[in-house]
Amino acid sequence: MGLEDVWNLLITNKIKTVRFQFVDLYGTVRCKNIPVRHFREKATKGLNVLMGYLVLTPYGDFPEDTAYGEESGFGDVTCYPDFETFHLLPWLNDFAGVITTPLLENKKLNSCPREIAIKQLRELEEMGYSLLSAHEYEFTVINRATSKPILEDSNWASALRMLEAEEFFDVLAEDLPKMGIDIETIQGEHGPGQIEITYKPSTGIKAADIAVMFKNAVKEIAWKQGFSASFMSKPFKQWGPLSAHFNHSLWDQMENSVLFDDNDPNKLSKVAKHWIAGILHHARAISILMAPTSNCMLRYHDNPVVPSTVSWGMDNRTAALRVNRSGDRGIFFENRMGAACGNPYISMAATVAAGIDGIRRQLSLPPEVTGQKKDNMELIPSTQEEAMECFLKDDVICKAFGEDFIRSFTALWKMEQKSRCEALAKGIDEYEWARSYFFKYM
Questions:
Q1: Cα-flanking dihedrals φ and ψ of residue 142, to 5°?
Q2: Which of 29, 20, 69 is nearest to 47 (CA)?
Q3: Burial of 14 (0-12, 13-18, 19+ CB in 10 A)
Q4: Could you tell me which residues are beta bridge partners of residue 334?
Q5: CA distance 294 to 179
Q6: Strand partners, 131
Q7: Cα–Cα distance, 102 to 95 (Å, whole number)
Q8: Going by C-beta distance under 8 Å and a sequence separation of 6 or more, which residues neighbour residue 106?
Q9: What are 324's strand-pairing partners?
Q10: Is the dihedral of CA 113, 220, 151, 176 positive or negative?
Q11: Cα 152 to Cα 131: distance, rounded to the nearest angstrom
Q12: Where are the alpha helices (DSSP H) in 341-383?
């Protein structure tokens, strides 16, 4: 899709305003609204944007030492639209959106998560493989006026319970397909107010683009109806955690799955085994990338369906990586380490970087886990400090993400740690602090 194609869509759909969107390290969508009469100019010449917007905290604070804030004199980047990401915003009047690519002195930013994911996908393509994937999101919805959850009990997947939020589900089901998100399932999750929606997978970077669009759409549609929707990992102590499992599969250039081998007991090819082995080998390092906040770590505490070990299994939801098999074209992997509030570009890039290393070095697949075996097994980090240490010690993953990203990501991590410690020292409950910090915007 090019400029003229988008322009024709703008005219056909009588669009008056176009959002030029840019995504920060936490995955929050930030934007500038452009009257449609200026769209051609901004699309061609670019839109100047404060580069510090790309490394903000959820509430808009500038961390120190990101290289894109005060250190740069709060300078600009120039954002250009990626026309392939153009989409309508049907819950708003005559609005459309497009995801942009930020350039600094005509060069792409090395710290931009979308660019890091594109780079990893390009390396995968050079090896002869393509990625088909989708993020499987859970989120919480509460009524802003009453603070009550939209689904009041914990009756998992109950058909009757879904009637409590029928109108909200109807709007989601109507609006999301209009922006290119092909919903497959909607269900009530375990906790009060918790919902899971799955949608069809996409090839390449489009899958992460759709994940970004999906999260922001859910939040805005909910807000328009008097609700607040959040992808915060664990907003309430008494409710279950929220995940973003990264479902993915590998295909060759002829669109054949490269994961299936009929002669293997588990029907897994050598490529599949090396890929799994790579993800497990780097699991401890990528855990902070899959679950980036201190609140994310609360997911791992005493919950059997949230992975706590570096493990894999056939259709095993207690493992970090679950293998789902349904025929020779139906094999896909579910990286279950992801928290709902994570950045989908980062979780994609981390998974692909780890898998690529497994293939390149032909890493051996450890034994499969059945049940919830934990004895003598390597554990996923349970604290941010441990997770960050594992990340910074992993040369392969650090090289994949680069020094600029590491500097910005570490700065955000340090600022959150400081804010959290100050709140706890004042006697503020950890969940209360986390809700005030993350709930609305993540």
A1: -125, 155
A2: 20
A3: exposed
A4: 247, 322
A5: 33
A6: 250
A7: 22
A8: none
A9: 332
A10: negative
A11: 38
A12: 344-360
Nearest to 232 by CA among 221, 218, 246: 218
Which helix (H) or strand (E) segment holds residue 166: the answer is helix 166-175
The identity of residue 9, as a single letter, is L
Cα distance between residue 339 and residue 243, in whole Å: 4
Is beta strand 183-188 parallel, antiparallel or unpaired with respect to 130-143?
unpaired
Which residues sit opposite 78 in a β-bridge? 48, 103
Considering only CA atoms, give the Rg of the chain. 21
Which residue type is seen at 301? H
Hey, which residues does 312 pair with through a beta bridge?
A: 321
Strands (E), 94-208: 95-104, 107-108, 130-143, 183-188, 194-199, 202-203
Q: What is the DSSP letter of 383?
A: S
Q: What phi and psi, each to the nearest 5 degrees, are found at residue 249?
A: -145, 160
Q: How far is CA 17 from CA 46, 95, 98, 281, in A?
A: 16, 5, 11, 47
Q: How far is CA 130 from CA 70, 123, 127, 252, 258, in A?
A: 39, 10, 9, 6, 10
Tens place of pLDDT per residue across the chain (442 aa): 899 999 999 999 999 999 999 999 999 999 999 999 999 999 999 999 998 888 888 888 888 888 887 777 778 899 999 999 999 999 998 999 999 999 988 888 888 999 999 999 999 999 999 999 999 999 999 999 999 999 887 777 777 777 888 899 999 999 999 999 999 999 888 888 899 999 999 999 999 999 999 999 999 999 999 999 999 999 888 888 899 999 999 999 878 899 999 889 999 999 999 999 999 999 999 999 999 999 988 877 666 778 889 999 999 988 999 999 876 667 999 999 999 999 999 999 999 999 999 999 999 999 998 876 666 789 999 889 999 999 999 999 999 999 999 999 999 999 999 999 999 999 998 889 999 889 999 8
Closest by Cα among 224, 218, 216 to 193: 218
Q: Which among 93, 105, 90 is positioned nearest to 179, based on CA atoms?
A: 90
Q: How many residues does the chain have?
A: 442
Contact in structure between 111 and 68 (CB atoms under 8 Å): yes
Token pair listed for 376: 């003598």
Is the Cβ–Cβ distance between 143 and 150 less than 8 Å?
yes
Enumerate the H helices of 20-64 as residue ranges.
Answer: 39-45
Contact 128, 252 (CB under 8 A): yes
Beta pairing partners, 203: 132
